[in-house]
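Retry 2 of 3 after timeout on previous attempt. Resubmitting structure tokens to design endpoint.
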């Protein structure tokens, strides 16, 4: 195989470099210039003979530099045009060095280059067209950077190209194909891999792109902005094994010649706008994973091929308008693990039969018309029938619960019949119970075809990894896999730790070898895992120079000088130690006075020292006095976190003081989160943090005092405020602007993670203010797009996509806000008597009737006064926000704009001030204060409460 050839070449180059010497005068100046432009280069990059001195990551033949492989070494700086001076270079792999930034130089002088691998760096700007002049290039991997602009048509000149990966960038424009004056990707008839997912490509997929001469096995265009039809010429590429076109805006019908793709194993067409008949997948006998969900296919009966695909592992066809009763034969397919057919028209009886697949883990038929279920003893399958007639109110069967736990997705490599020891700081115990410093990173599989709770496939992956490392004579003792998670793109992310053999750390050549195997796709995972890429972490545990090399590079004068210098340093340290001992107490006292965080307990659940901007640090005595010694008369709310008291500062300002109870389970982290986040957010629609206190073992947060309680209190009539339609629109717009500020303008951006009516406060002018940041998650640059995190939130408002994938994005807040909008027009809690507000609105909707026929579930207070057009647009916006796929939800900036348009329809000025006072609303002060968080329900993905009472 071609990757074996390149790896053998690399090994030969390393061997040759050990006997070569006197680096060519043509190469050293270029490499020296690169060294000067980079920081954190290997410690042994000294002298003027990289080949003879064996510089780490540099391989030579005939005194010429032919390979630079420096994956995960912490390099930073820019790749300058000096690289062009290395005219004999065959391999350049600088992967997993995030510190390498800026634009790429021209590569036109590297005529012999076969592998250009810059995976997971920080490069930006356009991809230089000069890559098209590298006629011998076999591997071109530029994925997971920040490249912009179009795909260079010149890449079409690379007739030897085997691997083309430009995924996970910001590329835009159309897919280039050849014409009379320009090359294009259709010329790459020998290329096996087209990886272009997660970019911003637009326009149609050209029919000219594919032909019967092509040998493609992977075509990945997922999560772009492609439009038009799927070209029928795709059916000519009979070698195709994995096809991902999901999360675009493709339309029209699927060509009948899809049946020619008899080698396809994974097929992803979900989340497009496809129409016409459901694709006929008969004859695709090796198809194991199919997802065509969320399209607009014609209504059709259950197709016969459901039961004929003997290799089928996962059948995912949510919202595809299929109808009828599922055949028992479907569940007897021996490889079947997942069946998800939500939001269709499946009816009749669900009968799994006695001969069902023993690998079957999940049958999800939410929101269909199933009215009976033939149960048998011994099932170990998660079955979800919520939203079917069989699960009418009062049904207590497990399959009618929305809170049942998802199938087990946890896995970590077990220890090999040994007891893990206690390791020193930064060291980790390996599967063989040896303490070491492992090389770490994340394996990302773009099209897995198995249930990721299946431990046996991970065992085979571990074995293949070890075989690959050992066959290349790399110093690897063991590998550790853990935390399998599917992200929003249906990629499987898997944490990898590689442990060294013979010592407790890797040297640079070991890291370089492992990184090259994973970046160069030398390692081939088991078939079930499909195409993958790896993002490695920088390795921070390299040893110093070896003793013999140090001896070689030092002369006697240097040694004598070092000894004298060392003696002087020891003497100075002794003097400094005496001085420090005498003044330690005085310094500690001064520090405590000048640094309000000097006593922060880093080892407790409150985490490290908060980073704040502008919030005042109150003394405990000040707050004790302001609240009348935390008297019951001043108590205005409470919850699991603690109690809330009204306080009056010496300047007369009213505040709300939130005091954590002793032993609060979540208090420490919530306390720190709210300090850090609220101290740096300043917006009229976000509650202000006045200050905090954490003296004497106390944790107190001091907020501005909000007079009119929560939006939930007002909607329930608890405080006597009557909210008309105009007022609700203004509250919705104010809350949306607050959340938009958090997403778009806060630095770093913040995902609230608990948007709900109990966390929207109304001031004395009934302006909306977003509050309660205890569960909020800041998103730094490295987490842009999404962050994998423990699921937390409040049932009824929680984004189901976030719950299922553990991938948190801004769209998770959008879903919660959509539920809030439905709450505003119905005045109902999200879950009321077992009924979910989103489902209720969808079921009741009839677009042929006035106000969509929702009069029966609208709040009577506003039902008669809502202008019909504005009400319909408000409902449309709400349902777009709660779309099952986050990709199809609007952003909060789009929500704000739409709410402003709705207000304009009603003749209202979106920028006008709110009510001058709330006095005319007859406020009743007998209510719980808004700073109470009693209703907050947080949980992890491994646990869900069996019942959540609506508040």
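Retry 2 succeeded. Sequence:
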């Amino acid at each position: 195989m071609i990757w074996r050839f390149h790896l053998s070449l690399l090994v030969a180059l390393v061997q040759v470099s050990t006997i070569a010497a006197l680096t060519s005068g043509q190469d050293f100046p270029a490499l020296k210039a690169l060294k000067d432009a980079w920081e954190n280069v290997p410690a042994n990059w000294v002298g003027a003979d990289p080949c003879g001195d064996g510089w780490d990551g540099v391989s030579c033949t005939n005194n010429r530099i032919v390979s630079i492989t420096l994956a995960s070494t912490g390099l930073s700086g820019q790749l300058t045009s000096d690289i062009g001076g290395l005219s004999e270079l065959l391999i350049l792999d600088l992967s997993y060095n995030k510190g390498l930034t800026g634009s790429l130089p021209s590569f036109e002088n590297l005529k012999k280059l076969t592998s250009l691998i810059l995976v997971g760096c920080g490069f930006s700007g356009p991809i230089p067209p000069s890559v098209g002049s590298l006629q011998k290039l076999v591997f071109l991997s530029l994925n997971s950077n920040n490249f912009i602009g179009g795909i260079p048509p010149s890449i079409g000149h690379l007739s030897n190209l085997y691997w083309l990966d430009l995924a996970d960038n910001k590329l835009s424009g159309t897919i280039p194909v050849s014409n009379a004056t320009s090359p294009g990707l259709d010329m790459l008839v020998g290329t096996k891999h087209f990886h272009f997912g997660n970019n911003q490509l637009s326009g149609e997929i050209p029919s000219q792109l594919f032909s019967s001469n092509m040998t493609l096995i992977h075509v990945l265009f997922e999560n772009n902005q492609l439009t038009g039809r799927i070209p029928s010429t795709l059916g000519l590429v009979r070698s195709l094994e994995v096809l991902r076109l999901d999360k675009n805006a493709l339309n029209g019908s699927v060509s009948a010649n899809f049946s020619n793709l008899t080698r396809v194993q994974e097929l992803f067409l979900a989340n497009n706008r496809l129409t016409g008949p459901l694709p006929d997948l008969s004859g695709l006998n090796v198809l194991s994973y199919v997802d065509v969900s969320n399209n607009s296919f014609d209504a059709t009966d259950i197709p016969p091929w459901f039961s004929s695909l003997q290799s089928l592992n996962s059948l995912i066809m949510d919202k595809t308008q299929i109808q009828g009763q599922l055949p028992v034969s479907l569940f007897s397919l021996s490889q079947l693990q997942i069946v998800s057919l939500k939001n269709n028209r499946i009816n009749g009886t669900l009968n799994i039969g006695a001969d069902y697949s023993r690998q079957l883990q999940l049958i999800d038929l939410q929101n269909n018309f199933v009215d009976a279920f033939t149960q048998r003893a011994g099932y170990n399958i998660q079955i979800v029938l919520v939203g079917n007639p069989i699960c009418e109110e009062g049904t207590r069967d497990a399959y009618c619960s929305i809170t049942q736990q998802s199938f087990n997705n946890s896995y970590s490599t077990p220890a090999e019949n040994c007891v893990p020891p206690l390791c020193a700081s930064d060291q980790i115990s390996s599967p063989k119970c040896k303490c070491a410093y492992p090389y770490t990173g994340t394996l990302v599989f773009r099209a897995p075809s198995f249930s990721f709770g299946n431990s046996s496939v991970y065992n085979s992956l571990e074995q293949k990894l070890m075989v690959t490392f050992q066959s290349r004579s790399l110093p690897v003792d063991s590998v550790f896999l853990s935390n399998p998670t599917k992200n929003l793109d249906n990629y499987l992310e898997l944490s990898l730790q590689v442990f060294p053999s013979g010592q407790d750390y890797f040297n640079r050549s070991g890291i370089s070898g492992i990184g090259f195997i994973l970046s160069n796709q030398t390692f081939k995972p088991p078939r079930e895992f499909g195409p993958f890429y790896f993002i490695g972490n920088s390795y921070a545990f390299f040893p110093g120079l070896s003793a013999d090399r140090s001896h070689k590079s030092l002369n006697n004068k240097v040694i004598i000088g070092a000894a004298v210098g060392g003696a002087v340093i020891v003497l100075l340290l002794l003097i400094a130690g005496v001085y420090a001992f005498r003044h330690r107490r005085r310094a500690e006292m001064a520090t405590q006075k000048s640094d309000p965080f000097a006593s922060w307990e880093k080892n407790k659940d409150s985490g490290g020292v908060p980073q704040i901007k502008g919030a005042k640090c109150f003394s405990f005595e000040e707050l004790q006095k302001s609240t009348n010694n935390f008297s019951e008369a001043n108590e205005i709310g409470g919850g699991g976190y603690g109690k809330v008291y009204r306080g009056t500062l010496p300047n007369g300002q009213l505040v709300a003081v939130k005091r954590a109870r002793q032993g609060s389970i979540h208090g420490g982290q919530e306390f720190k989160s709210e300090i850090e986040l609220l101290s740096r957010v300043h917006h009229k629609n976000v509650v202000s943090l006045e200050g905090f206190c954490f003296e004497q073992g106390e944790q107190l947060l001091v907020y501005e005092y909000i007079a009119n309680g929560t939006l939930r209190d007002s909607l329930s009539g608890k405080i006597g405020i009557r909210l008309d339609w105009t007022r609700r629109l203004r509250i919705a717009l104010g809350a949306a602007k607050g959340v938009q500020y958090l997403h778009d303008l806060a630095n770093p951006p913040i995902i609230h993670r608990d948007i709900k009516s109990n966390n929207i406060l109304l001031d004395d002018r009934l302006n909306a203010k977003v509050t309660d940041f205890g569960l909020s998650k800041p998103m730094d640059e490295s987490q842009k797009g999404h962050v994998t995190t423990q699921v937390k939130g409040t049932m009824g408002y929680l984004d189901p996509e976030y719950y299922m994938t553990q991938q948190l994005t801004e769209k998770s807040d959008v879903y919660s806000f959509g539920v809030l909008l439905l709450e505003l027009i119905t005045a109902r809690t999200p879950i009321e008597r077992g009924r979910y507000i989103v489902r209720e609105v969808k079921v009741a909707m009839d677009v042929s009737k006035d106000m969509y026929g929702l009069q029966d579930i609208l709040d009577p207070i506003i039902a008669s006064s809502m202008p019909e057009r504005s009400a319909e647009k408000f409902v449309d916006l709400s349902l777009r926000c709660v779309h099952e796929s986050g990709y199809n939800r609007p952003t909060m900036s789009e929500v704000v704009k739409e709410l402003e348009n709705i207000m304009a329809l009603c003749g209202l000025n979106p920028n006008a001030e709110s009510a001058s006072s709330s006095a005319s609303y007859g406020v009743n002060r007998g209510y719980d204060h808004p700073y109470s968080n009693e209703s907050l329900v947080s949980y992890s993905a491994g646990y869900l409460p069996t019942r959540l009472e609506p508040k």
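Attempt log closed. The longest strand covers residues 476-486.
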